[in-house]
Design a protein that fits this description.
There is one protein chain. With about 210 residues, the chain is an alpha+beta fold. The protein folds into three domains: about 40 residues; about 100 residues, no CATH class; about 40 residues, no CATH class. About 35% of the residues lie in helices and about 15% in strands. It is built from eight helices and eight strands. The protein has a four-stranded antiparallel sheet with strand order 1-2-3-4. It is elongated.
């Protein structure tokens, strides 16, 4: 289907840039457009959804709306709300200091979790408690119920894309796992290898 030319048109906070059907799934007949939001973020959205008023921003408007709504009810003071808010900002706000490692890499927050209550319901049903962090099982995919879990700091550290892995005598472990096995503090191992340039055997006390 030939797309309706929306180039340069404004819809709420969104300005149409160009057709971008990279988001289209098999069987989907909609045409998608790349939009620039007034907040500076870019997002691919169905052209028909935008024309019909279903989408009026990249999601920054939802963040602000939810912030006002949950501030009124006190939810903004909870740890879980802060986790949700930070998750959305690093994926959707180009002004966030972590955007380069998330939103710019294509890491997205699913539509279901654009609403805090949906995220809260999932969290409670899936073991959330104080002291745990949200972790993406596949670090190359976004935040969604099927790709997230609540974990402790060690588990999350083992899953990071930049995690340092060391192989000795056929055994491959992350730096945090070697720390646990040898009893040497993680910070000490990291400093020995990354700051002082020690080889892996010396760093782990294997001589």
């Amino acid at each position: 289907m030939r797309p309706i030319d929306m180039t340069g048109n404004r819809y709420g906070k969104l300005v149409a840039i160009k057709v971008d059907n990279s988001k289209r799934k098999i069987g989907d007949t909609k045409n998608y457009w790349l939009f620039k939001c007034d907040c500076g973020n870019y997002k691919i959205i169905s052209g028909s959804d935008v024309r019909q008023g279903k989408s009026r921003s990249c999601g920054c408007g939802v963040i602000e709306s939810d912030k006002n709504r949950f501030t009124k009810h006190g939810s903004s003071k909870t740890k879980l709300y802060n986790v949700w808010s930070a998750m959305k900002k690093r994926c959707q706000s180009v002004n966030d200091r972590d955007y380069a490692n998330y939103g710019k890499r294509g890491i997205r927050v699913c539509d279901e979790w654009q609403e805090f209550q949906s995220f809260k319901d999932w969290s409670i049903k899936n073991g959330y408690r104080e002291g745990l962090s949200i972790d993406r099982i596949d670090v190359d995919n976004g935040y969604s119920p099927n790709n997230c879990r609540w974990t402790d700091d060690v588990t999350q550290a083992n899953n990071r894309t930049n995690n340092h892995k060391i192989t000795i005598d056929g055994e491959t472990l992350t730096l945090s796992e070697w720390s646990k096995k040898t009893g040497i503090k993680y910070s000490t191992l990291s400093a020995r290898i990354n700051t002082y340039g020690w080889d892996k055997w010396r760093a782990l006390g294997i001589v």
